[in-house]
Design brief:
By secondary structure, this protein is mainly alpha-helical. It has three helices and no strands. α1 packs antiparallel against α2, α1 runs parallel beside α3 and α2 runs antiparallel to α3.
């Protein structure tokens, strides 16, 4: 355990951020998983919801923008293939 006041504060901040990031990441993963299943049934609404979740994760700093772009591209290709 840290003894320095700033280090103790940093530990508190890191824990808050870790929990927030975990929630955003989980929500994003769920949306992408649902979109993959929906793409097989050619439902673009679920894909657009997943794309929105990916964009939000990027804006919050949870995902790198290139990672989100790659995942959005894969979803779009999957949807186009099943149309």
């Amino acid at each position: 355990m840290a003894n320095i006041k700033s280090a103790i504060k940093r530990i508190r901040q890191n824990e808050k951020r870790r929990l927030r990031n975990r929630a955003v990441r989980s929500k994003t993963r769920g949306a992408v998983k649902a979109a993959r299943a929906a793409a097989a049934e050619a439902r673009p609404a679920a894909v657009s919801a997943a794309i929105r979740a990916l964009d939000k994760a990027v804006s919050k700093g949870v995902l790198h923008r290139n990672t989100a772009a790659r995942r959005k591209s894969a979803l779009a290709r999957l949807l186009a293939a099943h149309r």
